[in-house]
Amino acid sequence: MKIEDVIAAASEELQVSYGENALWFKVLIHQAVRTFKSANALMMFSEKVETLDSRIKLPSNFIKMSCLVDLNGITWCEDMDYCIQDNYILFDSSYNVEDGIEFTLTYKGLPVDEEGDIALRDIWERMLVSYVCWKYTRRHFDRYPAYIVNDFKKEFQLQKQALT
Amino acid sequence: MSTLKEIVDKVKSNLESGFTTDETRLDDLFIESKIHSARGMILSNLVRSGMRDRINESFVQAINPDLLEYDEECEMVSFECPSVIHLDDRHDGFAYVGHVSGMKPFMRIRSNYTALSMHSLYQKETQIAWDFVVNVTGSYDINVYKNHRLRKILIRAIFNNPTAVPNYRKDVDQYPLDAVTENEVVEMISVDLLKKITVVAPDYISDSQNTLPRR
Prior knowledge:
The complex is a heterodimer. Chain A has 4 helices and 7 strands; from the N terminus they run H-H-E-E-E-E-E-E-E-H-H. Chain A has helices at about 5-15, 20-35, 125-140, 145-164, and strands at about 45-50, 55, 60-70, 75, 80-85, 90, 100-110. In chain A, helix 1 packs across helix 2, helix 2 crosses helix 3 and helix 3 (about 125-140) packs antiparallel against helix 4 (about 145-165). By secondary structure, chain B is α+β, with helices and mostly antiparallel strands. Chain B has 2 domains: about 5-55 and about 170-195, no CATH class; about 60-155, no CATH class. Chain B has 4 helices and 8 strands. Chain B has helices at about 5-15, 30-50, 120-125, 180-195, and strands at about 60-65, 65-70, 75-80, 95-100, 105-110, 130-135, 140-145, 155. Chain B has a 5-stranded mixed β-sheet with strand order 2-3-7-6-5, with no helix packed on it. In chain B, a hairpin with a 4-residue loop joins strand 2 and strand 3. In chain B, helix 1 (about 5-15) packs across helix 2 (about 30-50) and helix 2 crosses helix 4. Chain B is elongated. The interface of A and B includes residues 20, 21, 24, 30 and 143 of A.
């Protein structure tokens, strides 16, 4: 399903304008998906990457490293040969890794669509809508009683737990 | 539903105890500006007191704004837009800004002074976004981003001055108010103006009579 479907459903649930809140809701949905590290949600990916400025940029759907292998078949070890910081693989400076060296990166990540955006599964809809509603009602606390805020929070937690 | 002229006449009629004549010292434009303000005040109070449900389509006006300029480099198109009402600290009067079909709203970049445009998600965003800004001449524009070829949009909003909307005809078009609010507006202005036009002679002498002091 598309991210717009979740935004539309959340806007309807809250009875608020789609256009006014779409960007913020998009940010919230990305937050919820990125922190949803359930084994069921993640998929294994493998792709060729190249070094640039002694580092490699991680794919946008990257969650967890599995292994990094160079063209000679040698596996590089995390925290010894390289570390991960700010969506980049940074190599130990003592290796003097040059630009353009190819590696095979195998990692666990979120499923993506043809355009490289994170693909949402249909069964996540209720979890994501309740997360957006929880965050929205918490921000507009003067318009919603506490039990509504907690209700959305509880629904999100239960849905997340059920999908884990 | 009434036209603006009819509402002005109702206010005048209230002030003159039911008679409607052309002989009044209150200018129509002055009463019209009072009507715009009273409408804004009532709408704002409805939102602040949690009665948003009472705000409905009767208050909304739709326009196809004129294209002002387009900037291919910034992927931005500007449209002229009359000033929009401010309901509370988080909401203004925009109901829809988007495709002319009325079915595809564009994303708003920010409301009030938030800065979601700084988020990397916005930088990567490919969908059309818009922003309502005041320009250096003091007029208001709608800037539409991410599609510099856009030439027509539809805006549906509650405007501060409904008569400032392009092609609005005071004598023919209905004033954007529902029947309940119209009565509130008329009463609010009538009471306010009555206070101003009723001059009571100062009675300083405590003798149970309306006695004016000698000068």
